[in-house]
What we know:
310 residues, mainly beta, Immunoglobulin-like, 3 domains, 15-stranded mixed beta sheet, 28 strands, 0% helix, elongated
Amino acid sequence: MIVQVTQNGVDWDEHHFDYSYYSVHRAFPRSGPSDGKGGVIVVSGEGFKPAAGPKCRMNGTESTPLSVSHDTIRCSIPPAEGGKDYYGNVDFAITPNGASWYPFDGGFQYYEQPTVEDIDPKMGPSDGNGVINFYGDNFRADYPLAELGCKIGTAKGKAHYINERQVKCVVENMPLPAEDQDSLPASVSLNSYSYTIPTEKTMFRPYGIRQLSPNSGPVGGITTVIVQGQGFADEPGITPRCRFGTPANYAIVEAEVLSYTRLACRTPDFLPLTPSAALPRDVPFSIALSSDEFDPWTKTSHIFRFYDQP
C-alpha cells in the first residue's frame, strides 16, 4: 500500500511510503505440556511477511518463529522454566513487524502432560455416540484455556473431564481398520493438540456396518440378516445385538459373530406400534457389541424394510 501526506487537502507530498498492514486472528494451542514436547503454536492472521522481522515471545523470552507465511506464524513451545511437572500461566505475544507486540489475553498455560494407563471399553461403534473411558493420571480442566480432546487413529473427538484419574471420550466418526490392522491407537489431550503416546493397553477396535443382506423381509422373525462390516468380535460377558427401529421405538434380538467381517441375526417376532396396515415399513437398523453403559449402538444409517407375509 502506498501512502502520501497532505497538510491542506490539495498539495500532496511527493514522497511515497510503503505501508504494510497485518491482522492477528488467533493462536492455537494456548496451553501445552511443560516438558516442551507439545508441538508448536500456530498464530493465524493475514499480512505476515518474513522480511518484516516477526518474533515470538513467551515468559519474557523472545525467539525467532519456526516459519512464517502470509497467514501463519509458527512459534515453538519451549520447556517450562519450572520443569516438566510445572503448572502455571506465562505471558505469550508475537510481533509481526519486529516492533509492535500483540499480547494474547490469558497468555499461555503450562501443565504436566497426563499419562494414560488403560481404556475401557476397547471396542465400540465407528459411527455413533460410543463412550470410551481413559484412565490414568494428571487429567485436569481447572484452567480457562483447557480444551480437552481425544483421538482414535486420526479421528478426533470430544473429551470430558471426570476426575484427575478419568476422562470420558466420544468420537462420532472414525475409520474402520482393515482386518490385518485390527485396532487403532487411542490418545487424549488437555489442549486438543498435544496427545498422549499410545501403548498396547490403549488400542481401540471400531466396528461398523457396510451393508445388510437381505435388507428386507416379512414380519414374523423368519429372516436371517447377514451384516457385512468390519471389527466384529465377541466381548467376554457381552451378547452381540441387532436393533430394529429407533431408540424410542425398537425391537432388539441377539446376534452371532460369524467372522471379523460378518455377523448374523434374525428379524424380531414383532415390531412395536406397527399395525399390519402400516406395512411395508422401513426401520433403522443398528448393532451393538459392547455393554449398554457405553452407548454401543452404531448410527441408524442403514434401513431394513418389513412387509406383510404373502
